Amino acid sequence: MNNKIRALRADCGWSQAHLADLLQVSRQTVNAIETGRYDPSLPLAFAIAKLFSQPIEAIFTPDQEPA
User: Fold this and answer.
1) What pLDDT is recorded for position 64?
2) What is the mean pLDDT of each successive set of 10 residues along the chain, which is 67 residues long?
3) What letter would DSSP give residue 63?
4) What is the value of pTM for the model shown?
5) Helix H segments across the chain?
6) Would you call 27 helix, strand, or coil by DSSP?
7) In angstroms, rounded to a whole number, what is the distance separating the alpha carbons of residues 6 and 34?
8) How far apart are CA 27 and CA 57, in angstroms?
């Protein structure tokens, strides 16, 4: 799954550690989500969307499957 978390976090001037604190997860979890190595749980995805005041669909997009 692709996401815009890195850009949204940068717009807010937040470090990965600060975002992790706000979401009550580890900095490693934030890094893994940003790099696409980990897809967040649905409750975590909702928490991220709420934190950035955006709908989930604006932050997370599915990977494109080959045609």
Assistant:
1) 77
2) 96 98 98 96 98 97 75
3) P
4) 0.89
5) 5-12, 16-23, 27-34, 42-51, 56-59
6) helix
7) 6
8) 23
